[in-house]
Amino acid sequence: MDMHQQVEEIVQTITDIELIEPSNYAVVLLNDDRTPMEFVVHVLENVFRLNHDESVNTMMKIHDQGEGVAGIYTFEIAEQKGLETTVLARTEGFPLKVRLDPQ
Fold first, then answer.
1. Residues 84, 62: Cα–Cα separation, whole Å
2. How far are the Cα atoms of 4, 5, 31, 43, 69 from residue 72, in angstroms, in the given order?
3. CA-to-CA distance for 102 and 10, rounded, in angstroms?
4. Rounded distance, CA 61 to CA 96, Å?
5. 64-67: long-range contacts at Cβ-Cβ below 8 A with a sequence spacing of 24 or more?
6. In CATH, what number is assigned to the domain containing residue 94?
7. Which of 64, 77, 80, 82 has its CA 20 to 30 A from that of 49?
8. 5: buried, middle or exposed (CB in 10 Å: 19+, 13-18, 0-12)?
9. 89 in any annotated domain
10. pLDDT per position in the chain (103 positions), as tens?
């Protein structure tokens, strides 16, 4: 087998490999009776980088429906944002809870 055939075979092998995209997870914030709406908006703006209107709309969904998606990310990023949210909430004395849902 000459060099050209070897290269073609390697290229075909690489082409045949199916790339697996990383799984995505929704970061879901859960409503509670003690975390102020303003704090939830603050978290959505500063941790999840939503604009003010998106943050208010998401906060209202959390308030009205009991939960709402703050964002969808790969697992590692979702986990980090969930941890940041939890630490920030506990630091401020709020019981805000976060759940990661596979998509």
1. 18
2. 44, 44, 18, 15, 8
3. 35
4. 15
5. 65/31, 66/30, 66/31, 67/28, 67/29, 67/30, 67/31, 67/99
6. 3.30.1390.10
7. 64
8. exposed
9. yes
10. 677 787 777 777 766 667 778 899 999 999 999 999 999 999 999 999 999 999 999 999 999 999 999 999 999 999 999 999 999 999 999 999 999 999 9
Q: pTM of this prediction?
A: 0.81
In a domain, 23, yes or no: no
Domain around 76: 33-98
3-state SS class at 100: strand
Asked whether 23 and 73 are in contact (CB, 8 A), the reply is no
CB atoms within 10 A of CB 25: 22
Alpha-helical (H) ranges within 17-98 are 37-46, 52-65, 75-91
User: From CA 92, how far away is CA 35, in angstroms rounded?
Assistant: 9
- Number of domains comprising the chain: 1
Strand, helix or coil at 71?
Answer: strand
